[in-house]
Specification:
Helix 2 packs across helix 12. It is globular and about 60 Å long. It is an alpha+beta fold and 359 residues long. A six-stranded antiparallel beta sheet has the order 3-10-4-6-7-8, with helices on both faces. Strands 1-2 form a two-stranded antiparallel sheet. Strands 5-9 form a two-stranded parallel ribbon. The chain has 14 helices and ten strands.
């Protein structure tokens, strides 16, 4: 099976884009991210080995279910118990022209990507390897689209590589079901997503679908009662960062926060991708630049996250922190917290208004 794979940075949104493009839906990574209601903020303690670390991210993990529901897609999660059953499942889907998404632990084959598919100085593989070295274990938070499979090799589509990636079946099987993980064990999880209707039949209702996705996403972000997700977690992160910086020395957890915040996930990255989502759907489905102002504002917000991540990195590198460094970081995070709320509330109201006016 040959796929016209999307290229981007968020593995889940890119995988959705690749699969939906195969079925004729012209959705980019950003559009898939926005329609999946994945915009969020999370802060939680995750256990690994005999200790805990704080995990920060700018999204939630309910996105595939949200995406399938709002677009009326057929969606199924299959978890074969044995390796041979996983292989048989993938072979069956590919032979029937059905692309699938598999959850994997990328650390099990990141060295292959670094050697064959990236430049030697590539930031993505270097930073990713560094984080897994800190964790000293696997994390099943990555997904790939499976294109073809043979006796000894499997072809997958990675989110930031233009051509298909070939790795051994042994490595893929290990990545699909590693011995242990600190985050979301993959357990051979396979996601099958198929449309019930052609994009042409959906086209005239896409504006309402987009408005609903924005409204529901922002309502959940602002008001859902959750220990781990939502706007209120930003204040928790602020307090944790301040308490940690008051302790002398370099803290690995803050190094991971900078990585998650600006390099791979977190505030900076996900606010950039949401800005692109608003800009793209505005051009595709709305008149009169309905979401243009918000698109520009989320890009500005992403830069604020990136800036505060750099400040934290600099402060964390000092043996002894200057009190003014901490004050500056607190002020920056307070500004971000307010801007996050104002923008989300504005989108909540605009989404609701559009739905009511166009029923």
């Amino acid at each position: 099976m040959r796929l016209n794979n999307s290229v981007g940075n968020n593995c889940k949104a890119v995988a959705l884009s690749t699969v939906l493009n195969y079925y004729g839906y012209p959705f980019s990574e950003a559009v898939c991210f926005g329609l999946s209601g994945a915009f969020d903020f999370s802060f939680s303690k995750v256990k690994f080995k005999n200790s805990y670390f704080n995990c920060v991210s700018g999204n939630n993990d309910n996105d595939y279910y949200f995406f399938a529901k709002i677009l009326g897609l057929k969606f199924n999660v299959i978890k074969p118990h044995k390796e041979k059953n996983l292989k048989a499942l993938l072979e069956d889907k590919i032979q029937n022209g059905i692309p699938v998404i598999s959850r994997v632990s990328i650390d099990k084959y990141i060295d292959v990507l670094a050697q064959k598919y990236f430049r030697a100085d590539e930031t993505y593989t270097g930073e990713t390897k560094k984080i897994f070295k800190m964790l000293q274990t696997s994390a099943g938070i990555h997904v790939v689209v499976v294109g073809n499979i043979g006796n000894e090799m499997i072809q997958i589509y990675e989110q930031n590589i233009e051509r298909p990636v070939n790795i051994s079946w042994e490595r893929f099987a290990n990545a699909s079901n590693p011995k242990s993980t600190c985050l979301m064990h993959p357990v051979n999880s396979v996601y099958v997503i198929e449309p019930n209707y052609s994009y042409e039949k959906m086209r005239d209702s896409m504006d309402i679908i987009v408005a609903k996705a924005i409204y529901e996403n922002m309502n959940n972000y602002l008001y859902a009662n959750s220990r781990w997700y939502g706007h209120s977690r930003i204040a928790d992160v602020r307090d944790w960062i301040v308490d940690t910086l008051k302790k002398d020395g370099n803290h690995k957890e803050l190094a991971m926060f900078v990585f998650f915040c600006d390099t791979i996930t977190g505030g900076g990255f996900y606010r950039r991708i949401y800005s692109h989502f608003l800009s793209e759907v505005n051009e595709m489905y709305f008149a009169n630049d309905y979401f243009v102002v918000e698109a520009k504002s989320y890009m500005k917000l992403s830069r604020k996250w990136s800036a505060v991540a750099k400040k934290i990195k600099i402060a964390n590198a000092k043996d002894k922190r200057d009190e003014n460094d901490i004050i500056d970081i607190v002020e920056a995070l307070n500004d971000i917290e307010k801007m996050e709320y104002d923008l989300a509330h504005r989108l909540l109201e605009k989404g609701a208004s559009y739905i009511n006016e166009n029923r």
